[in-house]
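User: Here's a structure from my thesis project, written as structure tokens. My advisor, Dr. K., wants to see whether a designed sequence matches the one we expressed. Can you design one independently, without my sequence as a hint?
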């Protein structure tokens, strides 16, 4: 506790290491293009708009005309950004520095490949690639272009909160961690409105195996990636079950899944589940150790000590003069004093920094590849009803 630093009602002070992702000065804006203007693409653009000192929006691209119209309206009619229906045309712009890729998962690799080969920096949304083979090829391609940044959109773990939790894990503050429980639940169809029937598969691509990794790729990959990064590990055995149990509406990807990962290296089990049939838990992320439990949301987190640990923490720190810890009603204490910003804001800061300094982003191509392999193996276990195993060639 003395090392962590008790501060007010929050358990931990945010130290310099946690703030590295945002503690720097901008040089000049870089010109970016957005490829894919659906909900996520427009959401990222809205955050980019709030950082004019870092980014200049040069262009945006989508194969659907109505999305280009929506994006133009969002950016403002006076905006200088050009609209494209073919990403290759956008990439011909020599002044374009970087692209953001927010398209169906099945298209991530080919567009990222085109962008890297055209000399652009790349921010590709999670999951990084659709297949294991694509993940391996993208790592190899990035290695061939070391001066170009490739960052993957696991925005939540760019938050100072998640950096602090990693520090707690690294320092042994949680004790021996043996279980991780993760859920990302919702109560709804997960469908988007389709203006014309012939656009069903393009708009609701998440429902179809040809384009999507389903709930594992779109939701649970965030938590899967964090565990890989925070513990510097990967699962060795992957088991899973699932089904179309709620919405029998022609979808192909399951709306109810549960996956179990066995991490032999660290002696831990990870439980990852998602359903479209109940929203009670929503985003649930618990890391359980012999000394205590961390319970995380996307922007806040609580620490729950085990009984013996809590007794030790009751003592007032006479050196720092810190007051006695105030536990909430269910026995927890905030990890940070206040909620963090949207994770995308921190991720965009780090992307800019990585480009300017030619430094490795926290969520880099190798981290993205490991998570992509995990998702692919999880889906194989779920849909093929078999246990999958990590192979040496998946080590990045």
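Assistant: Designed independently from the structure alone:
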């Amino acid at each position: 506790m003395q090392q962590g630093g008790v501060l007010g009602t929050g358990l931990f002070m945010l130290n310099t290491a946690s703030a590295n992702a945002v503690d720097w000065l901008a040089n000049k804006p870089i010109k970016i293009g957005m490829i894919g203007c659906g909900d996520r693409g427009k959401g990222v653009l809205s955050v980019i708009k709030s950082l004019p000192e870092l980014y200049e929006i040069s262009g945006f691209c989508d194969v659907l005309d109505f999305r280009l119209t929506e994006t133009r309206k969002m950016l403002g009619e006076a905006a200088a950004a050009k609209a494209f229906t073919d990403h290759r045309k956008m990439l011909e712009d020599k002044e374009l520095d970087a692209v953001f890729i927010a398209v169906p998962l099945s298209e991530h690799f080919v567009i990222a490949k085109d962008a890297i080969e055209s000399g652009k920096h790349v921010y590709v949304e999670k999951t990084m690639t659709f297949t294991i083979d694509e993940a391996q090829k993208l790592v190899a391609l990035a290695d061939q272009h070391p001066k170009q940044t490739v960052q993957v959109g696991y925005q939540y773990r760019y938050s100072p909160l998640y950096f602090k939790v990693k520090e707690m894990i690294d320092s042994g503050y949680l004790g021996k961690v043996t279980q991780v429980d993760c859920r990302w639940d919702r109560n709804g169809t997960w469908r988007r409105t389709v203006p014309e029937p012939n656009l069903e598969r393009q708009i609701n691509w998440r429902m179809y195996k040809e384009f999507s990794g389903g709930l594992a790729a779109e939701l649970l990959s965030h938590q899967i990636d964090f565990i890989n990064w925070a513990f510097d590990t990967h699962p060795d055995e992957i088991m899973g079950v699932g089904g179309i149990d709620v919405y029998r509406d022609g979808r192909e990807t399951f709306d109810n899944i549960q996956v179990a990962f066995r991490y032999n290296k660290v002696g831990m089990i990870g439980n990852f589940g998602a359903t479209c049939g109940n929203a009670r838990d929503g985003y649930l992320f618990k890391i359980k150790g012999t000394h205590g439990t961390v319970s995380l949301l996307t922007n806040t987190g609580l620490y729950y000590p085990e009984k013996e640990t809590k007794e030790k923490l009751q003592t007032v720190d006479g050196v720092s003069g810190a007051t006695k810890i105030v536990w909430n009603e269910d026995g927890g204490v905030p990890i940070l004093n206040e909620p963090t910003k949207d994770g995308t804001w921190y991720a965009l800061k780090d992307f800019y920094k990585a480009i300017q300094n030619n430094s490795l982003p926290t969520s880099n191509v190798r981290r993205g590849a490991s998570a992509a392999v995990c998702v692919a193996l999880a889906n194989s276990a779920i849909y093929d009803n078999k246990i999958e195993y990590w192979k040496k060639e998946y080590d990045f």
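When you compare it with your expressed construct, this may help: The chain has two domains: 19-156, 157-341+366-394.
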